[in-house]
Amino acid sequence: MTAPPTPPPGAKPDLTPGVTAEQQGGAAALRPFASVGIVGDGQMALALADLLAFRGAAVTVWSPFAEAAEALRRTRTSTRLPGFWLPAEIAVTADPAGLGGVDLLVNGIPTQYIRPTWQRLAAQLRPGTPIVSVAKGIEIASLRRPSELLSEASGGGGSIAVLSGPTVATELARRLPAVMVAASADPELAQRVQRAFASPWTRIYHHDDVLGVELAGALKNVIAVAAGLIDGLGLGVNCKSALLSRGLAEMARCGAALGARRETFFGVAGVGDLATTCFAPEGRNRSFGEALAKGSDAQRLLEAGSSVVEGPPTAKAAVAIAARERIEMPITAAVHDIVYRGRPPLEAVAELMARSVGAERIG
Amino acid sequence: MTAPPTPPPGAKPDLTPGVTAEQQGGAAALRPFASVGIVGDGQMALALADLLAFRGAAVTVWSPFAEAAEALRRTRTSTRLPGFWLPAEIAVTADPAGLGGVDLLVNGIPTQYIRPTWQRLAAQLRPGTPIVSVAKGIEIASLRRPSELLSEASGGGGSIAVLSGPTVATELARRLPAVMVAASADPELAQRVQRAFASPWTRIYHHDDVLGVELAGALKNVIAVAAGLIDGLGLGVNCKSALLSRGLAEMARCGAALGARRETFFGVAGVGDLATTCFAPEGRNRSFGEALAKGSDAQRLLEAGSSVVEGPPTAKAAVAIAARERIEMPITAAVHDIVYRGRPPLEAVAELMARSVGAERIG
């Protein structure tokens, strides 16, 4: 078992002019979680470990893989995040017992792997430990959201929060500015998470619509596939911006039908995240759509990257929801048909443009 | 006087599979305006002339400059729109009388020049002719919107509509897909304009919130300056997407305070247009912000391109509105201070990130 390290004496963050002491984590009294365990060693997990250590928390990164943990501990670098150095005071372990005593758990495991990974941890976790998740998407087999999976996996005793927004992890790791929401049904946890993750480069709003934030984070991957199709077909910025706004209306409509708040989709975790997903070149769902438009075979692409390209299975789920709730989601349906039924992308675009029009409906 | 030409006999649009006859303008009975006069010879004016001619209308382009009209008529090309050919059946004139008999006038004159240009035309226009405007922005001296200026300039007898959305003119001229809204207080005009401008490459919704559509088209230029600052400082896609979502919230808040509908800002003419303005590299307001961040002098930049960089004066107007209505517009205020008070952009970003946070408020 790895004991959670304490910050070395005298270690304190740089003081940036114009930034409050609270945001810099200078005052221990304002530090909402003294120790944090990060579940996962991917890009987001590492970027958040750095952030929380800067804020003065004692951070332990847990990797599902013993060899990866050993390499990360020794080299303080990761091939997943070139140019990043993991601060020396952060502990790294592959032993679930290393997470046993922490005040907060951060889930950085991708949605499709949450269930098996957290099953390995369950016995070692202190019951009732709050969890904050940065996973986006829905579990394909069960259509469950990350917060639901984590609530089950951790025995249901603790509060769950989700942290979401436009966060390309490589930028976050470089400490470039980012804005997120911390959403929880437990308002006290939402505000504690807000304080814990606020820093000179991260601005966090608290939020109470967990359902809306998680649905937005899943549904945007469908629109991102369509954005990639538009890029691959060379249809231009006007077309992609129209997609963004009409895709957003579909997302909000679906969310409202399922009980989420419409405004959530027009905020940082909705349209903010959607903009990054549609315009950042590195996105996996956008890249998948672009490759498809350029003639790659959908089935082969999905087999090669099935666990990380979540737009297509999410489209499948959303098409079923739209049918059940009797709502229109024409862009989502087009993505579904292009991926799973071999529909030519240009034909789908022509049909979308030619649908009968009326007054603009938002959500 | 140039007589409006009629379409050559037998001229009919290509039939694209899956596109309705109405959208292709095939049926004269469905053609809402038989003749259209385009006021202006800029990029948008030419792209729309092409679109309306394709839809079967008899189109006359009026240029404010006799020499430019002569060159355009002779060469069918414009240095403002490389690669574009003006269809042979479109008439070109610099004589205001050429617009006298048309069924619809399209304003393609930029906002700051609407008043003097339309004063030259007023005596020749048939009273009551409907006008649709594609100008964005507000008149700096009077804070009046394009539809208000046009209503005054044309004697106030006819209905006014505005056409807005993400429309980089060079893409529209290449007939790449675009989605717009046609807004008017006169619902019949909004629907006629919708039909007139619908084509295989343009999808138009009708809308009734003229105020919201015009405010969105003006306020987005302020956010675009901030997007350029972010690009110039190299702050990344996360930061720009956060700006987009929080800028949108400011725009919606300002619009709601002035009586516009909040949802308008979350639609095609709001967030759709904002996305294009923040992400398309060619935008003048975005480019202005980028040059500023890289050390150019604001005053010199404004003097060089004062008539087309409308973000800074719009920021000035919006700051006054925010003070009067007691609403928060921190991004708009930062742009104002950076441009007019020499505030260092990075300092403004640090302060925006460090403002006290609470629950996310949309609009």
Walk me through this protein's architecture.
Two copies of one chain form a homodimer. With 363 residues, the first copy, chain A, is α/β, with parallel strands linked by helices. Chain A is 49% helix and 10% strand. Chain A has an eight-stranded mixed sheet with strand order 3-2-1-4-5-6-7-8, sandwiched between helices. In chain A, strand 1, helix 2 and strand 2 (58-62) form a beta-alpha-beta unit. The N and C termini of chain A lie far apart (50 Å). The model of chain A is unreliable at 1-29 (pLDDT under 50). Chains A and B meet through strand 7, strand 8, helix 9, helix 11 and helix 16 of A and strand 7, strand 8, helix 9, helix 11 and helix 16 of B.
